Amino acid sequence: MIIALIILPMIFSIPTAIAWYLWRKNLAVTSVFGLFLSFILTIYTYNLPDSTISYPWIPQLGISFTFILDYLSKTMGLLTAFIAFLIGVYSLEYMKHDYRLGWYWFFFNTFTSSMLLVVYSDNLLSLLIGWEGLGLASWALIGHWFRDDDELSYVGEIGRRVWKLKMFWSPSFSAWRAISTIRIGDMPMFFAIAVIFALTQNLNVSSMDWHTVFKDLGFASSIVLLALMMGPFTKSAQLPFSEWLMTAMTGPTTVSALLHSATMVAAGAYLFMRLSWYIEPWNIHELEFAYTLILFLGLSSSLYGALVALACRERKVLLASSTLSSLGIMFAVTSLSFWFGRIAIILAFLYLVVHALAKATLFLVAGHLIHATHNRFHCKVNFRKMPSAFIATLIATLCLSGIPPFTAYWVKSGMEELLHHLEEFGYYPLALFLLTSVIYSAFLAKFLSLNFLKGREVEIYTHREILMQTSYIVMCLTLLPLIVYVFREVSESSVIVGIILAIAYVLAILKPTYESRVGQFLSDRMYLMALNDLIVPSIGRAFIFLCYYFDKAVDLFAHTVIPEMFENVSNAIRSVQRKRLTKYVEFVIGLLFTILLIAGWFEWKL
């Protein structure tokens, strides 16, 4: 059953790819049908009891394909399949005139299958297969429009430069940047998994004796965990690896919607939640350093993403920055499990669910707006002409902003209470969280205001796209029942924070833009791309330069200096063997003088 729901999307995409490349026939419906079947199976699986299912894989090493059904995997699997199916339906209309439909549908469905493999895998080795599938599919889809011939597929203002920094990025370059950045984190992750297997001869997350493993390692346990977490850090674009996420907006908007909601970047946060669930860090004091570092890394990434989103001029880049901010919150709150146990993981996971549905909705609306206006920058569309897009945006932004009584408010109030009771670091983490929440609410309102309410109205070039509208309307409506699902009593301070967020939301709608040098600095993402585009390449070139000349020096020493030295010694020996009396005398005198010096030195020491 689980294997079927994982592979069905990819299997049903193969006829679509073959039909397109051989006969230019559009069989996209076949791929969407595969997504639909997978979604139906996840519904069935959701109602099964918690269990693990194993299939022998490498019996000589005791390794099996092991899948797990628990609260996290069943909910995440259902969420992934549901969102992928709705985005697939949306794509039928959005991508129908594309010139690479076979490529798109094969890798879109592979993307979904890979994420489902990551979600349900209990074995770290089989999880790695899905992990690498996510990386491959993201490269293929981010660079889908590889010709770089459409201005709408770029990120940034074409031709703009700041000093030596190029401030615009093409699809082909963005795909390369994404896959190369992710690889930075994958290598230490592989190393950590190898260390864990060497210590335990076990790779199943749920059955591993994590307590014994990390207790035996001592302080090194934090190092191993951080190495393992490097994969999720880069996959979820946490600082300083965030730049690939912004430029990944060169792919089709449907890809961005899937990547930012239920796959790829969510995979990193989900894996951290799953590991923490079974590691039980609250019982392992040796992991305090790792969880403290992840807490502040997550809060810093969250604040950075919120500040950048506040000044973004492009629709999709604003949403990408907001994803970075949300992922930072997920990492930070999950790390609180070291002090507060599983309640922190549950709160982070609920936020992941809310964020996935709301962010998918907003990306699909953004795609519809770009499709209608032929413009990727913020520009006003009369909400009366696109009422479904306006309503979906309003619901999604309210549910995500943390304003009472909407969904994220109840989740964020729980997060706020945990941070309030975190005594180890004073009020610093709570202050960062509250500041980020206010900014987060403001830029969501900015997205609504600049695209529907404020500014100069632009002409729209579209007709009623029923499939596109239906997809994001259904998506956003699923957020409303969650209000009842997470409803609970909250403290007075949480109510006050909710009111402040509501005020920030309203003010941002009334005044969505503010031109200043600081705004330009934030819009340019604080020039963090200099790390990727200037600093790291410069270090790489310097390293190559040093390696080249070191190699030349070794080559010179090995092929010139050493042979000449041996040649001189050989000539000296030959001159002695020719029985030249002068040489004999010089040799004997030198030898005697050396012996006398050594003897004198020993006598002086004694």
TrEMBL record:
**Keywords noted in UniProt:** Membrane, Transmembrane, Transmembrane helix
As for membrane topology, the entry says: Multi-pass membrane protein
Report domain NADH-Ubiquinone oxidoreductase (complex I) chain 5 N-terminal positions: 59-100
GO BP of this protein: ATP synthesis coupled electron transport; electron transport coupled proton transport
- MF annotations from Gene Ontology: NADH dehydrogenase (ubiquinone) activity; NADH dehydrogenase activity
Which residue spans traverse the membrane? Answer: 6-23, 30-48, 68-90, 102-121, 127-146, 187-205, 217-234, 255-277, 289-310, 317-340, 346-370, 390-411, 426-445, 466-487, 493-510, 584-602
A single GO cellular-component term on record:
membrane
UniProt xrefs under InterPro entries: ND/Mrp_TM, NU5C-like, Proton_antipo_N
Chief subcellular location equals membrane
Coiled-coil spans are none
Every NADH:quinone oxidoreductase/Mrp antiporter transmembrane domain range: 179-413
- Where is the protein localized? Membrane
Pfam families per UniProt:
Proton_antipo_M, Proton_antipo_N
Asked if the keyword Cell membrane belongs to this entry, the reply reads no
Which PANTHER family does the entry mention?
Answer: NADH-UBIQUINONE OXIDOREDUCTASE CHAIN 5
Q: What is this protein called?
A: NADH/Ubiquinone/plastoquinone (Complex I)
Please name the source species.
Archaeoglobus profundus (strain DSM 5631 / JCM 9629 / NBRC 100127 / Av18)
